[in-house]
Amino acid sequence: MTDGKINGALLAAMSNPASPPEHRVIVRYKPDLAITSRPLLGSIRARHFSLLSASAMCVSSEQARLLAADPAVETIWPDLIVHTCLDLSVPHIRAPQVWAAGYAGENVPVAVIDTGIDPSHPDFAGRIAAMEDLTGEGPNDNHGHGTHVAGILAGSGSRYRGVAPRALLYIAKVLHGDGSGYMSEVIAGLEWAVQQHVKVVNLSLGGVGPCDGTDALSTACDAAIDAGLMVCVAAGNYGPTASSVGPPGCARRVLTVGASGNDDSIASFSARGPTADGRVKPDVLLPGVNIASCRAQGTTMGTPVDALYTRASGTSMATPHAAGLAAILLQAFPELSPAQLKQRLMTTAVKLGQDENAQGSGRADAVSAYQGTPSQPGPSPHPSPPGCLVGLASLLSRAHQR
Amino acid sequence: MIVRVRGDLGSAAERVASLKATVIRRLALINALVVSASAETAERIRREGWVVSVEPDRKVSTQRRPSEGSRNDGR
Q1: Where in the sequence numbering do the catalytic residues of A fall?
Q2: pLDDT at residue A400 above 50?
Q3: pTM of the model
Q4: How far is Cα A252 from Cα B49, in angstroms, rounded to an integer?
Q5: What is the ipTM, given to two decimal places?
Q6: Closest Cβ opposite residue A290 in set B27, B57, B72
Q7: What is the rounded CA–CA span in Å between residue A291 and residue A319?
Q8: Distance (Å, rounded) from C-alpha A359 to C-alpha A266?
Q9: Is the dihedral of CA A4, A10, A14, A16 positive or negative?
Q10: A269 and B24 in contact by Cβ < 8 A?
């Protein structure tokens, strides 16, 4: 009964010997209990709230149980760290709730195989593990695309924060300053990523479809998956024409990502299946319309927001949302194979009620994928508010439902 | 072009060179060679028994939508 008042995540932390001896908690009391009547323990310092009948404090596990035994106490929640995340897409796919559970992709090695990166951008500070140039231009991003993609995947900005803001970045520059390159250069980038032992690869690039997955680049993607890497690739921007997914989006074992809006509509440009040999593609959708992310110094790609950020659309922007989800899930469940990870993202996606060759399995969702439970079908969820306190809000909401 | 081969990649590279083609890069991930050759030489390579397939080294590009703006293109 006493433990029943303590939030499950807090209870788990209390029983974990590796946890710190004290826990930051929010104690909720019976409604309308005067602040002076709220039970405390000896000299514990507390911050009292008047908006709700609750107080925040630091307690040991034993003290938490003593508080829970008091009839005036209704619930004890963990006082979680919350993040600002003003952009819409990351809250929309509910990544901040998974951060709140402790999984922001910390130290998960992810490769962005693209136009390079601006290593001086503050949102990547201290997290670029390695850079490799396969173009002869040097690894710095003289186009802007790779920096934007890396920001969606793993940027740590306070205003525009990526899906896995603690992941470790491995950058292979395979596309030149004009945004294009040869399949063989991309394959060389994949080989480098395999040698670096990364866990997730992002390929926001492709060629013109249709294709059947037997081309060299698609074959190389499947080979990288056989080597244990999760490979997320863009479906392409040749929609809404049928069979418009291009290589490597038609590879068999990759996670092929189409683009949706923050209202869960399917972007008209997002490439459609089936593949030339009749398989359903894309596999999932993720936000790819008007996405604000990091801007490489000296570049003009997209619609600049300011010196550090720019907005862009495309399945290029949807794909790093998927790669970021893969990174935070791999931190939580490192034993998942690429196939299991792909299946988990697909089976838990939000069904949008559209043709499977337009929506795949639906729009992927971080919380459902983390919990391993299918998302509820139904009308499009409202976009989360900007400047979110999503983690705490969600926690409070769940606590109210108990 | 990308030439996928059977067997040892080093031996394949030597055979390609002996056919007067240039090996640009080795791709161990798919046991292939990136080769520059004339159309005539490419056809000779394609007919070799140790060659699995020959395909053009096609261009790929970023999948950003070039005509983006502030409007929502979702539908």
Answers
A1: 114, 145, 316
A2: no
A3: 0.77
A4: 27
A5: 0.88
A6: B72
A7: 12
A8: 7
A9: positive
A10: no
